[in-house]
Amino acid sequence: MGVLPEWCPPYNSRKKDPATGEEVFCICKKPDSGELMVGCDGCDDWFHFSCLKVPQKFNELVFSFFCPYCQCGITGPGASSGNLPKTLWRRKCRVPDCYKPCAENSKYCSETHALSYMRSLVDRVEGRGYDAQDVLRQMLQNSDLTKFQQIGCEGVPTPPDELAPGLFEGDSRLRDLGSQADKIRTETRPEIEQQLKKLERYMAWVKTVNHLLFASASEDQDGPSSSKSSRALKRKKKSTKPKSVCGYHPRLEIACSPEEFASQYDETETELNSVCCKLRCPRHSDWSGIQETSLRFQLETLESSLERLALLQKIRQDQLKMQVYKELSKSKQA
């Protein structure tokens, strides 16, 4: 188990204010006041940037956040597995005063900032009394492109796989990294993609159910009216949120057709076939959006893991190559 930072108080499992009954969050155990917060991917609690001593301008750079308690193994998956997680950050744009993440295959958040950064380098050269174009011209004139193109073409060593057949296949570390990547591609990622498709199918079913239950009532509200008072009432009703059942189901199972469900629906009941039928359900507020966001974030995290594993494989292969060349060098010296 890790050690908490000095500024972090001991873990408190309290979820509600004993005096007001309001839900509390963060290490400060205070209600949500609208201040910028970040959700922990380990314990699902929410934390204020200010309480974590993290500047708010870093909010777009957070890739995968784990609170101090999860990073120490007090809460979250690391508490039982022993694998303590760490917060992952996206690469910051190279422009000093920009705190947006880099675009794909770039050191900058946008083409505009890439040009701005290069312009600043030119300005620094010119600020020292040099002509930037003249400097570049002299560099090209003094460069021997023929020699540059021939670098590495002479004395190319024999590939390591010819010197040591089965070099990569026989390494246990490489096999382990390959197994981890294969498991993500063939098991973990397809499973999450299947969950996402299941959620999309179920939400389409819920949408159809709500249309069958409440579409006619909505049309009645929007019907023709001649009196001034009726027109005022119509405007008022249009401004209210349309009725819809919560639709939450713990396993996202579709037990019957939308038409059959609508025929069995009773507005006095809060549940039908394990489906939540509350019209205003604070317990399951935006449950579908939260689940979709979580699944998509898991897919994004898996892609990041595959990139990391590929990099580790490349590093390990380079290490094995160096070992072969070192052994070859020793044998020649002997």
Describe the 3D structure.
By secondary structure, the protein is mostly helical. It folds into 3 domains: 90 residues, Zinc/RING finger domain, C3HC4 (zinc finger) (Herpes Virus-1, 2-Layer Sandwich); 32 residues, no CATH class; 148 residues. Helix content is 48%, strand content 4%. It has a two-stranded antiparallel sheet with strand order 1-2. Helix 7 packs across helix 9 and helix 7 packs antiparallel against helix 10. The longest helix has 50 residues. About 4% of the residues have low confidence. Pfam families: PHD (PF00628). One of its GO terms (biological process) is positive regulation of DNA-templated transcription. One of its GO terms (molecular function) is zinc ion binding. This is LAQU0S01e06326g1_1.
Most strands sheet: 2 strands, antiparallel
Number of helices: 10
Proportion of residues in helical segments: 40-55%
Work out the oligomeric state of the chains in this entry. Answer: single chain
Q: Mean pLDDT across all residues, rounded?
A: 82
Counting DSSP E segments of at least 2 residues, the number of strands comes to 6
Arrangement of strands in the largest sheet: 1-2
> How far is the N terminus from the C terminus?
50 Å
Shape: extended
Strand content bin: under 5%
Helix-strand topology string: EEEHHEHHHHHHHEEH
- Please give the radius of gyration in angstroms: 30 Å
Low-confidence regions:
225-239
Total tally of structural domains: 3
Instruction: Give the helix/strand class.
Output: mainly alpha
Subcellular location: Nucleus
GO cellular component, one term: Set1C/COMPASS complex
Biased composition (Basic residues): 231-241
Main location: nucleus
